[in-house]
Design goal:
The chain is of the alpha+beta class and 208 residues long. The protein has 8 helices and 8 strands. The chain has one domain: Peptide Methionine Sulfoxide Reductase, Chain A. Strand 4 and strand 5 form a beta hairpin.
Length: 208
């Protein structure tokens, strides 16, 4: 019995040493990530839907498509820089595909309104897909063509598909605004009529 007890203790020591060595050894490789950039009017309202998707690791709101370096919110919102409000996603392609992100994107916007989204007017609120490689461009073009054929829209889809330039993160107070200011966010979203229009396209079962 004593011999068996010593053997058991020895085995526990071996396992403990092995576990410690594993913890101190080479860490497991981080998941390979990709980026995607979408514009769909107010970036507060575009952040929330993507934030909830499994496989989307980070969502940053900001500006893209303009001519000025390091634009401020005041400059962009005044329409002086050519940028549009957008979201940049970091995602794990093993958990969520770019095609799935496109599917969600189209269900957050009215793609038939040029230089506007819902109550917001101006090129700074134009919708767009900003691709980062040729595969993303092909997927974006294919999804747009398919949606024009089968979607619920009466007008022509005018959402731009453009090679991504530099994306500038917006000021800190804009990041995760829907979490920091939930009451103001819900009031803005409702008063702007976003959900009313989107529900008219897709019904209550659409991706939100």
């Amino acid at each position: 019995m004593l011999k068996s007890w010593f053997a058991h203790i020895a085995m526990l020591c071996i396992l403990a040493v092995a576990g410690h060595a594993g913890a101190q050894g080479t860490p497991s490789a981080a998941p390979r990530t990709e980026r995607a950039v979408f514009a769909g009017g107010c970036f507060w309202c575009m952040e929330a839907p993507f934030d909830k998707i499994p496989g989307v690791l980070a969502v940053t709101v900001g500006y893209i498509g303009g001519t000025k370096d390091n634009p401020t919110y005041e400059e962009v919102s005044a329409g002086r820089t050519g940028h549009t409000e957008a979201v940049e996603l970091v995602f794990d392609p093993k958990l969520v595909s770019y095609k799935k992100l496109l599917h969600v994107f189209w269900r957050q916007i009215d793609p038939t309104t040029p230089d506007a989204q819902f109550c917001d007017r101006g090129s700074q609120y134009r919708s767009g897909i900003f691709y980062l490689n040729e595969e993303q461009r092909k997927d974006a073009e294919a999804s747009k063509d398919e949606l024009q054929k089968t979607g619920p829209f009466k007008g022509k889809i005018v959402t731009e598909i453009t090679k991504a330039g530099r994306f500038y993160a917006a000021e800190d107070y804009h990041q995760h605004y829907y979490k920091k200011n939930p009451i103001r966010y819900k009031y803005y979203r409702s008063s702007c009529g976003r959900d009313k229009v989107l529900d008219s396209f897709w019904g209550s079962g659409r991706d939100k």
